[in-house]
Specification:
Length: 233
């Protein structure tokens, strides 16, 4: 349940100050911990080498996490719901509901960061169970990861350079496959709810609330809306 709190004494927004358009459909690049990164989207050069090896990384401080089928199913649901939130954020913005758009966008970003955090820890545990290939999608290079039959796209090097280098990757980042991509938000491989999936990930040590850029967003009427998932610890 969302909580809305009025800011007492806050001035109303000036009609002369345009609101910045939020781009709710984009994923946010994160660092190897999955937390928010305000740096450049491409933190590594285009020709950064990939070793093609599958050896555990040596200098990355990421707690390993075994990629059980239960964990990966929960991650699959989180990834699909993030896509739903992206679509809903865009739709809300287009109909003028800025509050709903901001809420959906904030939660969408947190789910994508949660995905990055899980995948980082899975690679740290056993990179031999993860394979990848670079895809060219809408002018950007993405890393398509396969973990025991579960598939996930990530921005190139979102999980960090050393973890990426530990994965067996079939092509180079400078020569990505031209992969037509259509965002599919339908959940077909699981009947789990988002609440159940996030709760299971929290039990494994990854709490989606920790990956919100901030716990609240501002509504169109300058109220503060709490976007944390109340069922998580």
């Amino acid at each position: 349940m969302l909580k809305e709190l009025t800011i007492r004494g806050a001035d109303p927004p000036s009609s002369e100050t345009p609101r910045r358009r939020v781009d709710p459909g984009d994923a946010v690049v994160t660092d190897a911990t999955g937390r928010f990164d305000r740096g450049s989207r491409n933190a590594y050069p285009l020709d950064a080498p990939t070793s093609g090896r599958s050896q555990p990384p040596t200098d990355v401080t990421v707690d390993p996490l075994e990629p059980t089928d239960d964990l990966l199913e929960s991650l699959y649901v989180v990834n699909k719901v993030a896509k739903q939130f992206a679509d809903e954020a865009t739709a809300a913005y287009e109909r003028g509901d800025l509050t709903e758009s901001n809420v959906r966008s904030a939660r969408k970003d947190a789910l994508y960061r949660t995905k990055t955090a899980v995948l980082s820890r899975v690679v740290a545990a056993d990179p031999s169970r993860v394979s990848g290939e670079y895809h060219a999608i809408n002018g950007d290079v993405w890393l398509f990861l396969s973990v025991d039959g579960w598939k996930f796209h990530q921005p190139a090097y979102a999980i960090g350079g050393e973890l990426t280098d530990a994965i067996e990757i079939s092509n180079s980042r400078s020569d990505p496959l031209d992969a037509p991509y259509e965002r599919d938000a339908s959940v077909e491989r699981s009947d789990r709810t988002l609440e159940e999936s996030l709760s299971r990930l929290a039990d494994a040590g990854i709490n989606a609330n920790d990956h919100l850029a901030r716990p609240t967003v501002t509504s169109e009427h300058d109220r503060i809306v709490d976007v944390r998932w109340s069922f998580l610890p």
